[in-house]
UniProtKB/TrEMBL annotation:
Belongs to the helicase family. DnaB subfamily. Keywords: ATP-binding, DNA replication, DNA-binding, Helicase, Hydrolase, Isomerase, Nucleotide-binding, Primosome. InterPro entries: AAA+_ATPase, DNA_heli_DnaB-like_N_sf, DNA_helicase_DnaB, DNA_helicase_DnaB-like_C, DNA_helicase_DnaB-like_N, DNA_helicase_N/primase_C, P-loop_NTPase. SMART domains: AAA (SM00382). This is Replicative DNA helicase. GO terms for cellular component: cytosol; primosome complex. GO terms for molecular function: 5'-3' DNA helicase activity; ATP binding; ATP hydrolysis activity; DNA binding. It catalyses: ATP + H2O = ADP + phosphate + H(+). GO terms for biological process: DNA replication, synthesis of primer. Its EC number is 5.6.2.3. Residues 193-456 form the SF4 helicase domain. Gene3D superfamilies: DNAb Helicase, Chain A, P-loop containing nucleotide triphosphate hydrolases. The gene is dnaB. It comes from Cellulomonas aerilata.
Amino acid sequence: MSIDELEQGYRPAANAGGFDRTPPQDVAAEQSVLGGMMISKDAIADVVEQLRGTDFYRPAHEVIYDAILDLYGRGEPADAVTVSAELVKRGEMGRVGGAPYLHTLISMVPTAANAGYYARIVRERAVLRRLVEAGTRIVQLGYATDGGDVDDIVNNAQAEVYAVTERRTAEDYLRLGEVIGGTVDEIEAAGNRGEGMIGVPTGFADLDRLTNGLHPGQMIVLAARPAIGKSTLGLDIARSASIKHGQTSVVFSLEMSRNEITMRLLSAEARIHLQKMRNGSMGEDDWQKLAGTMGKISEAPLFIDDSPNMSLMEIRAKCRRLKQKHDLKLVVIDYLQLMSSGKRVESRQQEVSEFSRALKLLAKELEVPVIAISQLNRGPEQRTDKRPAMSDLRESGSIEQDADMVILLHREDAYERESPRAGEADLIVAKHRNGPTDVITVAFQGHYSRFVDMAS
């Protein structure tokens, strides 16, 4: 089918301020993006970080893009044949111009290497279209005052422009050294107010002896009830990998900001009370320790990404990029139940199950261990014995099935302050696909935001 024959698939032209003009678009760039994606899965990884389906001007291209991403997300090849079959299954082949048009897209692209560049063009045109649409709505707001409050109208107009710019300022991962400056600024502001291991070492001697480290391709589920320390334990493992052993790790935090994460890392490494950092009561000795620690860890290959509303596709693409550029060795996702696909699903349980399977595929594809931090249901709190079990994994039994290792974190003093085991924590290795299970006891130093070996 020719380009002219597909004209009817274009989005309606925006009438900006009464002038009949075609909205900003670049159909050739859209075609080159899709063609490149069907040639190389590396191109898909480059594109998915930059584009969403709604960025395409032509609706047919959005349909093709969504089909490619679905195949890619399931770990299946996305070429002209498989994309065609997917579109037929969906009953959407007619909307895109048939199988010949898919082959046309591929034939138009000499190499997939430039797909990321074409994607930037498509994204920029999409932003311009949204700006035109926002401008039209602002004009309408101005004329439709009807005696309304001018401040409210200006507020609404600003909101229209902000909605356009919000995606342009989406955050990305940053090296720890790049985050430290902002974190120290926050601390200063508070002060003005007042063994030869095969796998990635966890930093806990008994756990490393049991597991021989975390291995490529493993999905490790680290689970606990709220406020037990699961995020802290995940950071401890990333800290061990990157700061102590120089192995590249990335922490995707859907809960804490990058400054909060960095403050915890500095507290743990420098042995400065976290509360002192937060309330600005650090003394001279603390500042000296902080300065020394900053110098030590600034070059650590630890990356932090606190981008909001991250999809699994974006996480996967960023991990691929880190693997290619920095030899990624460990991924930590905090935490599983905060992830969202943005799609309509039958149930939250089904959605979490899909995340679980996809994270296992990610670990295998990149050959790195992936730690998925997960929240337990209320089961432990409703029992006399508060120790968690695998059956307490929240929202999905498939988490237990997909995981190569399940570590359940338990602290008696979280339930009973006067417990004789106050300050101790159990790492319950409830599942270990390639080895024995056991209970590892460690010390919890909450004031330093860290867990350490009992001997320490």
